Input
Amino acid sequence: MSAADNEFIACARWIIPVVPSGQVLTGHALVVANGEIVDLLPADTARQRYGRFRVIDLPDHIVTPGFVNAHGHAAMTLLRGYSDDRELMDWLNNHIWPVEGRYVDYDFAYDGTALAIAEMIRTGTTCAADTYFFPEAMSGAYRDNHFRAQVCLPVIQFPNAWAQTEQEHIAKGLALHEVLKNEPLITTAFAPHAPYTVTDDGFRAIRKHAERLDVPIHLHLHETATEVMDAVSSGGMRPFARMESLGLMNERLQTIHMTQLDDREIETLARVGAHVAHCPESNMKLASGFCRVGDLIAAGVNVAIGTDGAASNNNLDMIEEMRSASLLAKAVASDATAVGATKALEMATLGGARMLGLGDKIGSLEAGKRADFIAVDVSALNFQPMHHPVSQLVYTTSGFQVSDVWIDGTRLLERFAYTRLDADGLRARVADWNRKIAP
Output
């Protein structure tokens, strides 16, 4: 075997493969060739069996699958901190949508996505579901930075800088799907914004195309109590029931937020195989409500974790997000065991991969899967003593302890430094946007 750059052994103090659940391996190694995990075995055996492979030593590190950010609006990272401490509809109607109307274009979407990618790589995220305007710009940023993503094709009934009608949104999305369908690190999904911004005809057309192309549907749903009450007042049914009546409630549906759920809706999600992306910090910051995560998991629903956009979070740190998800679930359920550290890590990795239809490729460290993984440096005194590496990872660390990141076997972060992202050039472009947008 060759010792080429795409063949290496990563030897770590601890490896948490996620599958089997709860397993922590000490003194083991991941063996990678051509972007694929080919073995996971004791480090000494790996060195002997794959003697010609390059060895990467991670002596004070926890290695896990890369995090999967199941929902976000990457380009909105350029609006980080622009309008804080407001409730959702005031925040959207009076602040975010007006500033987007003035500034959002191809360059905004590209540079904002690149900024989000830089933050996600730096904090251990290796795959993201992203929905925003100008998805062709977003996909360009992901491709240029070798980042795995589900690029969502936005649909909304109101005119904006990218499209003027629902029909134009769908047509442009279909065209972009054809362009991207063979990209190795990019998949697509339709993204009708929300029940209150998309018509029944729009949803019917999206369902038809999603079935024909076998792609998911990524939808904000039951985000706030006001959304649900307004829908009942105007249309006589809850948004969830409306989605059922339109035929969207199935295994393709990726629901976002879901802070307003009753028992029947939870049972339905489990029965049809729909997914939930939980965004705890954004929900708390906008006072949107609390997702019944413990009940969803108990019912058998696949729950993933997303950060939402940095304009409503205000960061994309998935370690921080999974800690918040665990603590909030305990508080909501009045049960300290509702979502433990092991489950939180699974939600942030394999749960997200399953939601995006990538569970056979990423989300756990198993032979045959793609080599998307990270190393977290826990050598500092504030991480000692190390009784339980999974608990320490979830409850003690932050994304900025991530020292190394690989996506599809390519090392994008090496000892805390980017290997291919142009940080200085990106910083200059972001500074230009800051001067334009500053309130």
